[in-house]
Amino acid sequence: MERAIRILAGTMVTISLGLGYFVSPYWLLLTLFVGLNLFQSAFSHWCLAEQIFARLGVGDEKKSVPD
Known about the structure:
Blueprint: H1 2-22, H2 28-44, H3 48-56
Helix pairs in contact: 1-2
């Protein structure tokens, strides 16, 4: 689950930076939103992406590789 959230956040930041550079600087607000969401989730232990991924069944499978 945590890996999926990191992949989503990294993808959103990369896409928004590209759109901010090539399309409109207003896309940088998406980068700000992702950063603020990561920051608040560190303190509140609540993340909307985690709830969405849980409903989609992401992270339900057992790990095949030990930590």
